[in-house]
Amino acid sequence: MNHDTILDRYLKDKFYGQLIGIWPDQDRFMKYSARLIILVIINISYVAQISQVVVFYSFDTLTDQMPFLLIGFAVLLKQYNYILNQNKLRRLLHGIAISWLTERPKEELEILEKYTKKALILSMIYKAASAILLFMFMALPAIPPVLDIVMPLNESRKRIFIFPSYYFVDEEEYYYPILAHMTMSAFVVAFVFIACDLTLVHVVQHACALLVISGCEARWYDGSTKVQALYILLLRKCLSPTKLTGGGLIALNLDSFVQILKASFSYYTVLKNS
């Protein structure tokens, strides 16, 4: 098996990375076309959402719009983080392929298989959750017509959109073009989150497999003097725990995530009641 065959076999979610233009070795035309399309769709959506706040400004409008603005910002942040670091991603993917192509004992291959399957299971759960959320958002415009049939009123209910925005046109006349753009925006958000997060899942799980392989049961002391020296340096480095941080300012873990949610909810409650 060669490099590409390995990635096709063990990184089955690379399709999403190619779909949003972050996969390092995909065709240049397709890569830049995907990036341009996503940039145009998200920027139009972002302008429409900001216009909603400016034209109909109130504190309630701002707080209602804020989650959607943050999602749009997160989409661009995620995608361009991968774009700007595509050389690092290429080296990581190359390292994964090399790990599989290296001749290994059966026990080590079983460890790699175990963590690859774990990554696939986590990916399936993530994709299922994303699909459910996407369906819920996509179903919002269908609520008024359904209610008109199930619980009719004297007049038809007002049609609604997937998220609040202002396009500077008559919303009733251009309802379906606006809804089409919102639908594309929703799909872009889902695909960007899936592609970026699942790539991270596969890389992290492979790293965990390598750590297990090189753990205390590894017979490093039977290797050459150079290997032993390198292993000692690695053990010395591990005295300082490895952690993922955001700009070196805050640790990215479950505890910090919970604290941010608590603080955000507290600020929102105070501002909402002020």
TrEMBL record:
<dbReference type="Pfam" id="PF02949">
    <property type="entry name" value="7tm_6"/>
</dbReference>
<feature type="transmembrane region" description="Helical">
    <location>
        <begin position="124"/>
        <end position="143"/>
    </location>
</feature>
<protein>
    <recommendedName>
        <fullName>Odorant receptor</fullName>
    </recommendedName>
</protein>
<feature type="transmembrane region" description="Helical">
    <location>
        <begin position="36"/>
        <end position="59"/>
    </location>
</feature>
<keyword id="KW-0552">Olfaction</keyword>
<keyword id="KW-0807">Transducer</keyword>
<keyword id="KW-0675">Receptor</keyword>
<keyword id="KW-0812">Transmembrane</keyword>
<feature type="transmembrane region" description="Helical">
    <location>
        <begin position="65"/>
        <end position="84"/>
    </location>
</feature>
<feature type="transmembrane region" description="Helical">
    <location>
        <begin position="174"/>
        <end position="196"/>
    </location>
</feature>
<keyword id="KW-1133">Transmembrane helix</keyword>
<keyword id="KW-0716">Sensory transduction</keyword>
<keyword id="KW-1003">Cell membrane</keyword>
<keyword id="KW-0472">Membrane</keyword>
<dbReference type="InterPro" id="IPR004117">
    <property type="entry name" value="7tm6_olfct_rcpt"/>
</dbReference>
